Amino acid sequence: MAGFSTVDARTRQFNRFLAAVILLVLLASPMMIGSNRPVFWMLNTAVLSAVTAVFLLLVNFGVVKMRVSFSRWRLFGTLAAIYLLGLVAQLVLASVTAPERFHSPGDILTGLLRVVSYGCLLLLSLQVTTNVGRARKFAWGVFGVTILIAIYALVSRQVPELLFYEKDVYVDALSGPFINRNSFATYLAFGSALGTALVLRNDREDTMSQRRGRMDVEMVIGRLVVFVAVLLLFACILASGSRMGAFVGLLGILVPVVLRVTQSDRSSGSRQALVGLALAVVALLAFALVSAAYGGLVFDRLGSTGMSADVRWNLYENVFAVALQRPFLGYGFDSFELAFRMGHELPVSPDLRWQNAHNTYLELWVELGFILGSIPPFLTGLVLFRLLRRGAENQYSGYLAQAAVSAIIIAAIHSLVDFSLEIEANVFLFLVIIALGLAPNDSKVKASK
């Protein structure tokens, strides 16, 4: 029995260490221009792989326990394994076939290692967040990281020397450490979703929040502070000038509200419903004021939406035609620019350099083919259904699942018109929020009461 307690204690201590490492990765990855360069991919992969290797070794020797349960995720694990094997197969084919058949093996390898880093981060995040209490505290840390990035963006706008790159595009827009304003807006939208869920959490579900009187006042003030922080994130999204960013930012705020209302306990009574309605009206007024104050750039760009839609539609038709040329194997991971250059047709402008498809789904099909390229969105769909159920059923951590649902909706919609989930810092934040929604084990909390 003593040995069991010692292992549990070591596991708790190591999980706290993992939580600190993950928060540092979340904080550092956006600072490196969103980690949108191979050198940063390799650095992040090295760090996360090393920590994961240490973790698995400690589990193997019985020093710590693996808290993650994979028994209900056989389909997910099988498809993920097929996806990785498909990328390895592409790498092998690129190494042994003629250069014109596939993209550079080196580029495919860096893309494969980037995917490995995603898997490592997801595993470590699931390990950290299985404990409900730790997951709830960890969520505050993740939200705090997004606030720090937003503040850094505002400060660096006044003092450009603080940026780690020379800003020569989007000069009038707020993009922070990201080069692309749309990617920055997606990052902030993820933070807004998590922050809104934290505002809407039901503290009566927390066994540590049963006191009344002054404690209630402190909780109201705390919610107000978080609400103001969400307003700050939304103001930064508007200042970025990203039209779709503003839309998904609103979704990041509205989806947790809708889920909270539709999935809440009906026994909560009409009084709580009236209070919630009053707070919703105040919140809408606050967001209207923020939009009026900071939404000028977005409103100005809305006038050119029709023209942009025509250009994008022509681009998507051309990209889809390129994907049809190699529907099974694709051109190779991270090969879009080269593949599109070979299949580029008018009326898509030849004067522009098309590094991305501005549609992640189409880009996956071009690079990986229709079968392998459809696995990531299909896996995300599986996770979405699991999260919707957890959000409705989990008494202690349901709001975290609702934040994760919102993050998936943000990612799914913005990926239709941009490449935000092709930016590593965004994927890191996305995966950690997904882990927060998936991992907490409410059954142990109920059993301990």
Can you tag this structure with a few keywords?
449 residues; mainly alpha
Structure, described:
With 449 residues, the chain is mainly alpha-helical. The chain has one domain (2-305, 357-448). Helix content is 73%, strand content 0%. The chain has 17 helices and no strands. Helix 1 packs across helix 4 (105-129), helix 5 packs across helix 6 and helix 14 (375-393) runs antiparallel to helix 15. Mean pLDDT is 84; it is low at 205-214, 266-275 and 302-307.
* Average pLDDT metric: 84
Structural class: mainly alpha
Q: Roughly what fraction of the amino acids lie in strands? A: under 5%
Q: Which stretches are low in confidence, meaning pLDDT under 50 for 5 or more residues running?
A: 205-214, 266-275, 302-307
Number of domains: 1
Secondary structure: elements and pairs:
Elements: H1 2-31, H2 38-60, H3 74-96, H4 105-129, H5 132-158, H6 181-200, H7 214-240, H8 243-263, H9 270-294, H10 296-302, H11 305-325, H12 336-343, H13 360-372, H14 375-393, H15 398-414, H16 424-438, H17 442-448
Helix pairs in contact: 1-4, 1-5, 1-16, 2-4, 3-4, 3-14, 4-16, 5-6, 5-7, 5-16, 6-7, 6-8, 6-15, 6-16, 7-8, 7-9, 8-15, 11-13, 14-15, 15-16
